[in-house]
């Protein structure tokens, strides 16, 4: 496979093929209905072929297109079950796989980033990639001191590709909206655009990972691999071997999935207090369950910087919603700019809209399921329903956008895991404002 297609015209043509392909299948579906063919079968065929095209194009392009697809992949649990299977299969592949770059390109990048004598720094280096990501691929190696390491090498042209993809993807938000009912895709894309540009410099990612590794050093439940070396387009970290969450989702035991869910929830809520940052790339390929039961986390290119921890107003809103205090909740939403100044919304409307979302915080143990997430997505995404109208009256201040996206992504993974866990206790312990 050649390096990332970089010429804007080629990449634009590939992305533009997505809505054209969908339009063609819609027309073909209407033709089949006119001839009396089964509507349910037509819908299933449409979903399968759309998923195949959508994620095939995103995976081939890598860069921002694949990165966005990975971000969407955690919303698979919100897709209605009758449509989910083809998307589920395509999304799972996208989370952890992409065509590799040639070994000659790998060597060239390492020459440029670590110097032409880079091989002396390694006792062994496997030129066959062990894993692929959106803007780089990972090789297994042994450092000169004997440690097993993971070497992430950025794809040649990834910077140009990422910026070009994001510009084009902003034009196709309607297409992606069907994958995440009830989720505003355009602000998600815009926020991803800002964060992903930061990910191009692996030195910044190395700094983020060092901070997380120091914060969780010695933790009995979480392992963050230490950074061994870094350059702008190469990152060397300690190698870890575990069971990816993507595998647990498919065939993990109930005990494993519940344990993985609890570890993920605690990592998500505790990280800002412990490290001053929030891991910003929640998809199952970035989390593994180790044989000793610990969670290991990788890929720290995208983070939200929260030096004061998670915002306390968020915890107070969650508590007021969980305790069914809609009048106080509406006052706080207005104070914190979560209600648009030019919009009228009642306390009862806010209760109806937000109440179901906070069910995990109401009970000692909550079972995160696909059906629960699907109900929420369908409810707020129903154009003719009252919750959709209420949602249009609400606002998400920019400083909360990444927190919201990451929390939504983590919730999606919990539902994919079908995990049962003490969410309220974790929130009470780590979310400022909730237990006050």
From TrEMBL:
It holds the Pfam family ABC1. The keyword Transmembrane helix does not apply. It comes from Saccharopolyspora cebuensis. Belongs to the protein kinase superfamily. ADCK protein kinase family. It comes from the Bacteria. GO terms for molecular function: kinase activity. The keyword Heme does not apply. This is ABC1 kinase family protein.
């Amino acid at each position: 496979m050649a390096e990332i297609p970089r010429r804007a015209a080629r990449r634009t043509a590939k992305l533009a093929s997505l809505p054209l392909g969908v339009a063609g299948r819609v027309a073909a579906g209407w033709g089949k209905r006119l001839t009396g063919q089964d509507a349910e079968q037509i819908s299933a065929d449409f979903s399968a072929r759309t998923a195949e095209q959508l994620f095939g194009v995103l995976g081939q392009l890598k860069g921002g297109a694949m990165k966005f697809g990975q971000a969407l992949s955690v919303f698979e649990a919100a897709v209605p079950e009758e449509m989910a299977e083809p998307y589920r299969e395509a999304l799972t592949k996208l989370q952890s796989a992409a065509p590799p770059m040639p070994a000659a390109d790998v060597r060239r990048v390492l020459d440029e980033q670590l110097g032409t004598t880079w091989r002396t720094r390694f006792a062994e280096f496997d030129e066959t990639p062990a894993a692929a990501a959106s803007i780089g691929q990972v090789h297994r190696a042994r450092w000169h001191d004997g440690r097993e390491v993971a070497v992430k090498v950025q794809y040649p042209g990834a910077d140009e590709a990422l910026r070009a993809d994001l510009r084009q993807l902003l034009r196709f938000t309607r297409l992606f909206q069907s994958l995440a009912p009830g989720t505003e895709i355009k602000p998600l894309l815009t926020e991803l655009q800002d964060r992903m540009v930061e990910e191009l410099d692996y030195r910044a990612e190395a700094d983020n990972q060092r901070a997380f590794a120091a914060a969780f050093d010695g933790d009995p439940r979480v392992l963050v691999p230490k950074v061994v070396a870094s350059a702008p387009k190469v990152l060397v970290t300690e190698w870890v071997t575990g069971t990816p969450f993507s595998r647990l989702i498919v065939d993990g035991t109930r005990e494993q999935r519940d344990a993985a869910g609890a570890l993920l929830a605690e990592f998500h809520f505790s990280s800002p207090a412990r490290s001053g940052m929030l891991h910003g790339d929640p998809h199952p390929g970035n989390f593994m369950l180790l044989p000793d039961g610990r969670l290991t986390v990788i890929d720290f290119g995208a983070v939200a910087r929260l030096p004061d921890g998670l915002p306390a107003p968020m915890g107070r809103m969650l508590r007021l919603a969980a305790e069914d205090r809609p009048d106080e909740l509406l006052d706080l939403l207005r104070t914190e700019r979560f209600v648009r100044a030019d919009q009228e919304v009642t306390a009862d409307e806010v209760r109806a809209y937000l109440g179901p979302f906070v069910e995990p915080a109401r009970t000692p143990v909550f079972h995160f399921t696909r059906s629960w997430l699907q109900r929420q997505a369908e409810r707020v995404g129903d154009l003719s329903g009252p919750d959709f109208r209420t949602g249009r009256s609400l606002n998400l201040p920019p400083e909360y956008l990444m927190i919201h996206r990451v929390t939504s992504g983590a919730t999606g993974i919990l539902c994919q895991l079908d995990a049962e866990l003490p969410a309220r206790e974790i929130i009470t312990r780590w979310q400022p404002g909730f237990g006050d």
